[in-house]
């Protein structure tokens, strides 16, 4: 099925409901089995650097200030001031109001600037507001937009509305990359996660993202596994590679490596790249840095030796 | 006087019409394909051949899926109907020399087994509390076609046939006491027992039993009626060829005692089904 | 590709002696005739230990020890027997790392499986049956069920310690004593279990371990003072044992071969079905009697499913069993490797199409790449005979009726799989499959509470659960 616009979407529902089901116990068992992979020594060092390069260093608080955002941008450019060999992160992720500050702070760094938009995190606003939100963020310098889908519309079965909103936001993005947040913790079933993934990809998403980080269940391994299967199958059918971004709750190097293993053994090589996979995280970065230092120095690191931002 | 005449009221002015004792296969009463008979208590009785045994297995196999597929409630009703018919024909059996009390015991045994039809699965099966998010249930199923060397008495015969069929198996029975056995076949034939569920062969089991013991399409072998240990061992060895379930002689000797569950469970397979539980 | 560096489990947690005697009457001793054999690590062909080959006199001594122990053991209060079994379960948990490494060394199975599947199930099995020992009157086998006496138990090499647990735990819980013979190629974990029994202060003679080859096993099952024979292994040997036991009155349970159909309908949860297929046939190198060795896939999705399966197979990691990332370890023996190779060559010669992912196999040891055959029909030998290796035969079907007919078209009847999202179809198909274990939307799951065993030539009797007690009770 090739869908380019909401016209002629009468079969969207039948397409989404015709996708193979996901057995909860099976997918969770598979994710748990992959989580037992033991990644040591040189492969661990490679994994840590890759994971750092995949981080969307995020601050999404009501208390965010220009000072806080500038500090975070500095950290994004040079995560470990003591070690110049440490790569920068993939992107900074902030609210639209902070895009201008971040844009200035990141200038020339190569670090991408992502802005949440579309009435993040609930998405409960008129479409025009969401589009304006998006346009302004892009105008202020964001080259990546993290939008939320209307979960209410999705759960009500109004797939065309969800599709049209994504397509409209994609249009509003212009040249910016669009990450579509499914808010998987609110979708209730893995079947819905698979359907929402396809819906977002068909509507023009460049990335599908698990969560806002603002609900009880954020990224999990099995949820990400289902989404990786979706992008893998989408490429098989449409030839286009869509990225995946788990967000929320990924705090340790051990967690991050489990995600890399998941990519490695599900979607494959092509997703082991910051253009195709991101971690939406904040505290994860310092743990990656501590583990990285442990590998280079041979002894355990302490939190006082890493910046707090 | 042949046994066939004993069951009839005789009068001075009329020549009685005697019964011909033939085999019972697939719900019909054929002669032996071999054309052979032998004389038992004055009657010419069909002497079953290995080919009759083969035909009986075919009939039993053909009837088995449908019989197993009927509801347990229905199988119980059919067995109860057999009990009713046996009760009604009590006189025929006593005339053949079966003590009246034994006929009663046989009727009661049938009623007992009739009631088991929709309970045995509950007693022997159930949910298994496995350590994981799985629905897991074990339930008994019939093993399939059972070849039976039956004991000579009516109560013995009923006591080996009833547990086999109430659980959904079909049987090929090598019966001792041909007149009693075939009279029981007539009871079965008039009791809504579908043709082929019970097949009765008369003759010399030492001749036919080895063919059933080695038959690839027989699932279980009940040797309750085998008197000679050497023959029983030989039959058990033959049964090993396809790993048939074997009920050895001596498992039940006192047919008046409570049979317990083993006559049924020995002819049941336990199937365990797993399914994940998750939205 | 993101390569994982080697992550070997440490061998140092297990201390294998140079040689082992027999465990009879609570003591290790050498055999009477001094015959020994070597057990090797199938992944390297390195000799692990010399093991005693038990002769007839040794088996006689073991049976006599079990007979002497039977009286006191069977008259112990059930609650006391239970406590011994609980102790054994606990010691196994505490030594599980050691035993897992040992099992992988002697058997060739990946440490991930011995660590995450075998050992947890072994401990769980002893825990489960421990609890039965003082509750037998409630098990549904009459108010006063009695033990049989001395049980002769012969187990295979595919799950050495787990099969021991399946045999020993219910036998001991019900008050029987045992003489157990582990497989010739995997004797070590049973000998370590003997040490566990000693640690638990189990009375001498309650468990006796005699090592040896087929002759030792044959002598054991023929022994006139044995009351019960329990065997897990090939259908051929099972048949022989059934013949041997005929006429003796010994109780017999057999858990034999299989050729399970794993049926995938067009509405299956495809990704999980692919995992189930992989787990069904490549778990434990396919050395599994209930392996899903015949894939029956609905023709309408066959192409798509096979593409997914092949893609998934390309990620299987074959190699060092002690590496924590290994999915497929070594074939257990040269003889088994020869049989797998032979049947695979026959499959190709009979016209089926053979495929394996690219994978480099170690130079030493016994290895076989995961393999599938497509274009297989019921007439092919690889669709009928148990290969007992990582080889999958793929057949197609059009309707549920045809799937059931093909699934049942075998003398075996141990297990089967069904993949579909439609409840009523699953239940109807499960009803009609002639197999003792049916996994629907899952495969190769085991639990001490779940009865396991086959229909038809896959054997008789059940192991596990309440049902598993029956084999050891009069």
UniProtKB/TrEMBL annotation, chain A:
One cellular component term (GO) for this entry is: cytoplasm
EC class: lyase
| GO BP of this protein | carbohydrate catabolic process; deoxyribonucleotide catabolic process
Kindly provide the name given to this protein in its UniProt entry.
Answer: Deoxyribose-phosphate aldolase
Spell out the NCBIfam families in the cross-references.
deoC (TIGR00126)
- Per the UniProt entry, the Enzyme Commission number(s) are 4.1.2.4
Q: Which Pfam families match?
A: DeoC
Q: Which UniProt keywords apply?
A: Lyase, Schiff base
The reaction(s) this protein catalyses: 2-deoxy-D-ribose 5-phosphate = D-glyceraldehyde 3-phosphate + acetaldehyde
Q: Which pathway does the database say it acts in?
A: Carbohydrate degradation; 2-deoxy-D-ribose 1-phosphate degradation; D-glyceraldehyde 3-phosphate and acetaldehyde from 2-deoxy-alpha-D-ribose 1-phosphate: step 2/2
InterPro entries recorded? Aldolase_TIM, DeoC, DeoC/FbaB/LacD_aldolase
Organism, as annotated: Actinoplanes utahensis
Q: Which family does the entry's similarity section mention?
A: Belongs to the DeoC/FbaB aldolase family. DeoC type 2 subfamily.
Q: Name one GO molecular function term.
A: deoxyribose-phosphate aldolase activity
Automatic annotation (TrEMBL), chain C:
Kindly provide the name given to this protein in its UniProt entry. Answer: Betaine-aldehyde dehydrogenase
For the keyword Oxidoreductase, the answer is yes
Tell me a Gene Ontology molecular-function term this record carries: oxidoreductase activity, acting on the aldehyde or oxo group of donors, NAD or NADP as acceptor
PROSITE patterns (UniProt xref): ALDEHYDE_DEHYDR_GLU (PS00687)
For this protein, the record's SUPFAM superfamilies field holds: ALDH-like (SSF53720)
Location of the active site = 255
Q: Which residues form the Aldehyde dehydrogenase domain?
A: 35-473
- InterPro entries in the record, alphabetically? Ald_DH/histidinol_DH (IPR016161), Ald_DH_C (IPR016163), Ald_DH_CS_GLU (IPR029510), Ald_DH_N (IPR016162), Aldehyde_DH_dom (IPR015590)
Query: Sorted alphabetically, which Pfam families does this protein's record hold?
Result: Aldedh (PF00171)
What family does the database annotate? Belongs to the aldehyde dehydrogenase family.
Q: Which UniProt keywords apply?
A: Oxidoreductase
